[in-house]
Request: fold
Amino acid sequence: MSQSSAMQGRFWSFDRAWPWLLPMVAMLLVFTVYPLLYNIWLSFHEYAPLKRRLVYVGFENWQTLFADARMWASLGVTLFYFVVVLIIQLVLGMALALLLDSDDPGMGFLRGVLTLTLVVPPAITGMMFLLMEDPEFGVLSWFLEQIGLLTSSTPILATPATALWGVVLADVWQWTPFMVLIFLAGLRSLPPEPYEAATLDGASAMQIFRRITLPLMNKVIAVAVLIRGIDLFRMFDYVFVMTSGGPGTTTYTLSLYAWQQTFSFIKWGYGATISLLALVIILVIANLFIYIAKVRW
Amino acid sequence: MATVEYQKIGKSFGTVVVLNDLDLTINEGEFVVLLGASGCGKTTLLRMTAGLETVGSGNLSIDGRRVNDVHPRDRDIAMVFQNYALYPTMKVYDNIAFSLQVAKRPEQEIRAKVDEAASVLGLTPYLGRYPKELSGGQRQRVAMGRAMVRNAKVFLFDEPLSNLDAKLRAHMRVEIRQLHDRLAATTIYVTHDQIEAMTMADKIVLMHEGRIIQVGKPDDLYDIPNSKYVADFIGSPTMNFLDGQLRRAGKKVQFVCGDLKLSLPAGFSDQQDGRRVICGIRPADVTLSAKGEITGELSLIEKTGADMQLHTTVENHEFVAIVPRGVDVAAGTSVHFAVQADKLHIFDAGTELRI
Reply:
């Protein structure tokens, strides 16, 4: 038997792709495709406590969803949170990255320090900020009162107008360094020549940032926005720990609302429906964004 | 347009001295080529002129004004970089227009200037393209266009042709020189290619190990190199060098190397007998002649088309001669060359300086 026909006869040949792909495909099927399909199936059913099983309800969950004022309110909270935190983290992250993009002594240490907030579990961060924003002994509350932004009669997390901002603080503290790290990686890999050329062309630092750095960082920023954006849209930990959605329902995010429907009210089907809505919105926004951010150069 | 003056310029990176006590004056409208092997400090000097490197010591003046501490943005200098340094996110139009845009010139004026530069450089069809959609030669032109619209005091070129193929390089040499003649701007051009230097320069500054070895017109450096280094660097194929001694024979002085004896011009009559020297002879300065004094063992014939290069051994030295094509010689035989006495370059064997 010649060498080539021996190769053809073998199952684990490099000519056949599928035996090699099989483990990955199986994992995706079990852990991603199946849960998604099950979720969709679940959204057309509801748990009947008396019968102790799921019964088919047709489009009832979907009809409830679109008529549910609390769902719309939590979607509003989620979108507000998404936009506000993303903008703060983008601007702050870029500013810090530009400051740290230097070979001066100590900068490497500072860049290393940045990663520290990322190793704290988000739930713990939530607890930390819950304590720091405590109206009686919280250091943040004290500080904000000292600079006159807050009075002792307005506890941050218990006042409807400020509660979500209290949560924003925790998110900004924990995840801005993530933005900084991504931006720094981008900034450090930019070619030096266009900067030299632009300086000789008479451009000011601001003109160089706007016309050279930002466009060059285009793709890096897009990646950061995408990763962080998806994270923000499914935000759960901070509100769960810090406010439990309160006061009232002012800090209920879509994820927290889905969790409440599913696990507190045992509405398996309706919880699944809310999650699916969140998934669809994320998919639409993400793809729209990828389309817009597509760069030609 | 401006003069550029370097006074006692020095520069070191750590303990490495890159430029050493360098004096040079570049006149208004001159095309000056800084020539030298890599590591000779020519690019550092150029970047220093632009302000991209700080001046270590000494004075750098543009148009009579000391600019050591002037920001590059305020020096009014245009530069073409070796790798072009185009703005990758901008189309060709914006690349060329950038300096005018940041100076907030009126849109109409910008368009007029960019269009003019584009038409001179043959870039008009490409104004809407991104740099990555252009060939190497086109990118090179964009870099030049960017410098052209500037109307700067001084134009700097940092080995702008080294990334182009030979044919395009020859073409761009002519274009850059024509551009200079059009703009009549002071130009400093860095290269390690002596052909570029010879063909383009008004004045060549030959540098070696952070120092200037010789400054002069291209012909001067070719005809009267002040040292063996310059003689070796300029000219292709390179000059032949023979080690030997000066011999007095009555009033005449001869160069002697083994059995080879060459008479030197009258100017050498006051030279000491027995002085150890190096005799340089350019390959193109010898002629085949049966009565020639130089005898070489011919080992290889290279045909370049227009002429032939004969690789020979003369008194244990490699010796190359350029002769017209079609002369009847064969490898493995002896050939005889004649050379005129005034074409001999005599250098001291110790200092390697011209005598």
